[in-house]
Specification:
Blueprint: H1 17-37, E1 47-48, E2 63-67, E3 73-75, E4 78-80, H2 85-92, E5 100-105, H3 111-123, E6 128-132, E7 134-135
Helix pairs in contact: 2-3
Length: 154
């Protein structure tokens, strides 16, 4: 009679090591890619209680000026001198219907720098300026969740 191979015993445990490896690789990929998706320069925005939503600031073609804590000014992703703001903003808004410029400033940036940037933007003929902020949350306060009362209409 011939030799009959015996199949190995079935393992009752799931081997999670390959899955953990894949998850770590995905985590690293997301950590590298996420900062690249952010529009403009990252600054620590001022926190306010009564902000107004400005969804147009997230659009691809929005004109966004950022003021860093150091006083550096960025138009989109490129650093510019304060004297160049008027000419570059005027050129960017030349053939556009929406002539809104969004300004985001670091909370620790000097007030004079912010005023100077807004003045340069106004000199470009812009009437609509959006000042971007973050919503302040009280410590320990949870985000409110919409709910309906059981029992129908009140």
């Amino acid at each position: 009679m011939g030799y009959k191979p015996v199949p190995p015993e079935v393992m009752p445990d799931i081997n999670v090591v390959p899955m953990a490896d894949i998850m770590l690789v995905l985590l690293i990929i997301f950590m590298v890619v996420t900062p690249m998706l952010q529009k403009g320069t990252s600054v620590d925005l001022v926190r306010t209680d009564h902000q107004r939503e400005m969804p147009d600031a997230d659009k691809e073609d929005a004109v966004l000026i950022a003021i860093a804590r150091s006083g550096n000014i960025f138009l989109g992703n490129s650093q510019i001198a304060p004297e160049e703001i008027t000419a570059q903003v005027r050129e960017m808004l030349l053939n556009r219907l929406d002539k809104t410029v969004y300004v985001k400033s670091d909370a620790r940036a000097q007030y004079g720098e912010v005023v100077r940037v807004v003045d340069e933007v106004r000199a470009a003929g812009v009437d609509q300026i959006g000042l971007l902020t973050e919503r302040r949350q009280a410590p320990g306060q949870a985000t409110p969740i919409a709910s309906t009362s059981p029992g129908g209409d009140d």
